Amino acid sequence: MQTLLLKKEEVSKLICMEDVIAAVEEAYRAFNSGQVVQPDYMSIHLPAPRGEIDFKLGYYQVNEMISMKVSSGGFVNNPAEHDVPSGMGTILLFDARSGALSCVMDGSLITGLRTGACGAVSVKALARKDAKRVASIGTGNQARMQIRAIRDVMQIEEIHAWDSSPASLPQYKADIESAYGIPVVMAESARAAVEQADILITTTRGTGSLVQAAWVKPGTHIVAIGTDQRGKQEFEPEIFRNAKVVNDSIAQCTDKGETWHPLDKNIIARQDIHAEIGEILLGKKPGRESDEEITIFDSTGMAIQDNTTAARIYRNALEQRVGTFFPFFER
Amino acid sequence: MQTLLLKKEEVSKLICMEDVIAAVEEAYRAFNSGQVVQPDYMSIHLPAPRGEIDFKLGYYQVNEMISMKVSSGGFVNNPAEHDVPSGMGTILLFDARSGALSCVMDGSLITGLRTGACGAVSVKALARKDAKRVASIGTGNQARMQIRAIRDVMQIEEIHAWDSSPASLPQYKADIESAYGIPVVMAESARAAVEQADILITTTRGTGSLVQAAWVKPGTHIVAIGTDQRGKQEFEPEIFRNAKVVNDSIAQCTDKGETWHPLDKNIIARQDIHAEIGEILLGKKPGRESDEEITIFDSTGMAIQDNTTAARIYRNALEQRVGTFFPFFER
């Protein structure tokens, strides 16, 4: 009985964005097919300047893998004091047929990758087929990851970017243009960026109505990433009134996603949420039905996305004979 | 940044029962000193003939370690079909100062060890000082572990053992006598064993009133181990009426321990529970107050026991330079 150990650099070579998009699509379909067990996650919150550690558990009955992702974040003094990043991660994979520990892999990359991929999955399901221009509100790592994934599923003609720290814009522009050859316009204001959008991506740590409803033109598809806990907010809740609202998990999004805000303000009711994205992928509910409607995909992230992504990395490692086997016990 | 990996045989050499008893005592004190964060555990239940996998998380603010114990059990076909035991375990230790993964160790042994130690801790706190005879209802692994631990804190003169499978008794007798030189009497009935007891240990998978209240003589200390989930039961609930009832965690024991049964039958009320054992160890509440009273220690097991035990194993490994360092990521 041996357990496969995978380092961060091995993980990064074992999976491409196309695979991650397929894994996230698989996760969404599985979630809406009753093939997933995904308990509420557990957290330990440490006092500042430390952050928190989350433990997310998912069981996928089709691949017979149980995943436990442990991810830390917000330990701001880590680089200076402990010579490690402010956030780290580990993923365990158990064989659900026996309970054996199959794999321990570094998990620093997976959250970013699978979150990036979710925007791309929603673009395929919900954006206009003639969408060309992307607005990016926020220019951090996840903003880049969204572009990396979305360019895999559509031709992006132009990106209009804005950030509450304008100083970050030139580096974002330089990075995106050199990596993907997509021209980036540094917007004067959030409004100027949003008004250009066929697809609007928000990846900030915002806590208020950053994007006003009136700025969003008909036909826009919105990928709302930033809000994954109470207290965070990126949109004026009014935007939800006449939009087609899609969640990754209605239970999660109504509890702590962007969707919580319009519910809290009675702008929409729970039954106004059109679908979970897996229902659309499975053909149980329609996606976009006109070129005029505004679609909103609110993503809070699910353990099953980590499961299907990590399982692909593990399978690729076995096939490519990458990694180190370690015998935690001898039989 | 390196993570220490510890195999099962390394773990077994890195800790002695004396250390485990100290670790469990530390855990109980910590729990009742507000130094512990211990969320409800998560479980995945698989369809028979598979079992379940539990995930237990504990943070101890004094050693600044966060432990996650993953333990599987009840996979009855494992030996035949997968060449692994029916239950396995893994423990992760994170440095709460940075969130870094400090250690991954095999966790097959820790649950048995720390559960064994809890009986010994309760004997120190609650048994008569002149206690000599132990009755063991149940003769499996945990029954042996209880003896291994209790003999560390008192002189056992004689053990009266009984099991619902009488065929297991001769092996138990042979094992205990050769390991510890303590004479074992194979009792004709549960009653015959219980009537001899100064200390009564129950470690069965029972689901009914195995031990009758009338059999238990005044002054007995009871270590109730077997019942750790709804549906399990070892005692006639009447025994709780005039006993001094001590729990490891009142929240857990009243929810799924032996203590649930007399509460359910209105034989005792919640306020009749004398103490959590940590309160006694800390001197906040008295332990045994007379040679006549019957004391009951109901143990359901807490994540913080895994934490303090695993942390000692980790510290011992560093001191003794045992184990394998693995770089999950390069800084």
UniProtKB/TrEMBL annotation, chains A, B:
InterPro entries the UniProt entry points to: NAD(P)-bd_dom_sf, ODC_Mu_crystall, ODC_N
Stored SUPFAM superfamilies: NAD(P)-binding Rossmann-fold domains
Highest taxon of source: Bacteria
Descriptive protein name: Ornithine cyclodeaminase family protein
Native organism: Telluria antibiotica
